[in-house]
Amino acid sequence: MNPLKSESKSFSPRFSLKGKGSRAKLGIAIVLIVILAIGAVPAYLQGEWITMSFAGIPLPVWKIKASWQKPFPVKNLGQIRRIRKEPIDVPGWETLENAALQIGGHEWHGQILARDDDRNAMLFVFPQKGPKEQPGVEWVDVDGFFKWNIDSQRSFKFTAEVGDKKASITARLLLARESRRSPFRLHQTVAVVQWYAWEWGGHYSPLRWFWLDQRLQLQKQRLPWIAVTVRIPVDPKSTLDTIEPDAEALAQIVQASLMENVFSKRN
After folding, report:
1. Worst-scoring range by mean pLDDT, 61-65, 79-83, 203-207?
2. Cα dist. 12→8, 59, 169, 252 in Å?
3. Is 5 a member of any domain?
4. pLDDT of residue 52
5. Which of 124, 135, 154, 217 could form a disulfide with 206 if both were Cys (CB 3.0 to 4.6 A apart)?
6. Do 49 and 60 form a contact (C-beta atoms < 8 A)?
7. Bridge partners of 97?
8. Would residue 108 count as lying in a domain?
9. What is the DSSP string of 89-139?
10. Is residue 15 part of a domain?
């Protein structure tokens, strides 16, 4: 079986909250989301409900739209699309193999990385294809594709610097067990880092991108994005605390490379 041609079916976790307090908070959050979305652009009175995933939970969001207006162009979209076929430069790591693979019905680009000290890792990216495409359920697709049994997870922050540019990123960190049923037939414990990268930052939540993109549209601009997943084999006895330094180090390199070689270059 060739894992680079494997494909998993996308799925969404069931939305279930118990308790009146939780329902009240959810109701307040939805009302605030609607008010903010509609109030952001008073002239745009038409819109539609869309579903955005936050921490694996689908939430309804009111998306403003103007039927007469085409989407604003995405900066460096051609350069972003190019990484579907070309490997990303990861300083300090050698790309042993790179290829396209189908995950959740979408084409991702994967790279197998190796370092001089015999450490290895995998990098998977899903770049934005066009101005209408938005991030959504990429992490659900990837988790299902690899059939990860997640032991523990949390968010963490890191920074990446390129020249005088400094980006702050909030990423998702997982410690997971990978069975032989996975596409790569490897029975391993892995550290996983996931985030949506953009030129001056990044976040694992698509909602964060959504609000920033809405604000930029007021200036007739858009926020280009690339979904990133880093997979690092670790010791089975590892914890989130022990895997975070290595995971952060590689994530910083990847983010800096995207900032320098993709987001900042012209088409």
Report:
1. 61-65
2. 13, 11, 25, 29
3. no
4. 66
5. 135
6. yes
7. 112
8. yes
9. P-TT-EEEEEEEEEETTEEEEEEEEE-TTS-EEEEEEEE--STT----SHH
10. no
| Residues 35 and 145 occupy one common structural domain | no
Taking the C-alpha atoms of 195, 198, 201 and 204 in order, what is their torsion angle to the nearest 10 degrees?
Answer: -20
pLDDT at residue number 212: 95
Q: What is the pLDDT, as a whole number, of residue 73?
A: 82
**Cα–Cα distance, 243 to 238 (Å, whole number):** 7
Same domain, 101 and 36: no
Residue 22: pLDDT band by 50, 70, 90 thresholds?
A: low
Count of structural domains, the chain: 2
Does any domain span residue 245?
Answer: yes
89: exposed, middle or buried (C-beta count within 10 Å: 0-12, 13-18, 19+)?
middle
How far apart CA 82 and CA 176 sit, in angstroms, is 31
Dihedral of alpha carbons 170, 233, 119, 1, sign: negative
**Which residue type is seen at 207?**
L
Query: Model's pTM, two decimal places?
Result: 0.75
Domain housing 160: 71-263
